[in-house]
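Hi R.,

Here's the chain you asked about this morning:
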Amino acid sequence: MITISQLTELLGWASVINVGYLFLATIILMFMSGTLSSIHGKLFNIDKNELSSKYFDFLSNYKIVTLVFMVAPYMALKIMGQ
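And here is the predicted structure, written out as tokens:
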């Protein structure tokens, strides 16, 4: 059985990892968008303009999921004092 303090620690580290990945993915897409668009465009047969929209959708959805399922529960548990 997992305790509340263990769950708080788990959510804290999961939040750090997910926010770190989100930051890394954003930086990579900012500085390597031409290379990534070329690779993904050829791999999935998608237009480069459409890929920009898909990259933005990915980052926005990932951010929402991370905030809702990792950061918010962690902050709630910290506010509760665990």
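One quick note: The chain has a mean pLDDT of 95.

Cheers,
M.
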